[in-house]
Amino acid sequence: MNTTNGQATARTCCICGAPLPKFGGCNPEPAYIGEEWEQCCDACNFHIVMPAREYIAKLTETRLAASRALRG
Ligand SMILES: [Zn+2]
Q1: How far does residue 2's CA lie from ligand 1's centre (Å)?
Q2: How many domains does the chain have?
Q3: Whole-angstrom Cα distance, residue 27 to residue 42?
Q4: C-alpha 26 to ligand 1 mean position (Å)
Q5: pLDDT, tens only, 13-72
Q6: Ligand 1: distance of its center to the CA of 43 in Å?
Q7: Residue 8 has what pLDDT?
């Protein structure tokens, strides 16, 4: 990271390092858990963060269904 305190000079995507627009950037969680101010670019959001969210949602669903089945 080229930042010292979050008041970055040039902001970059925390996943791929691409420069971010001055205003914009996406919340990278849960694909990337970093500092609060860190953001990712649209491409990473689309290709990495969104699939990660779907994956976790699906896992959670499966686990819930399994525990419901066990309880009967
Ligand atoms: Zn990126």
Answers
A1: 15
A2: 1
A3: 10
A4: 9
A5: 999 999 998 888 999 999 999 999 999 999 999 999 999 999 999 999 999 999 999 987
A6: 6
A7: 47
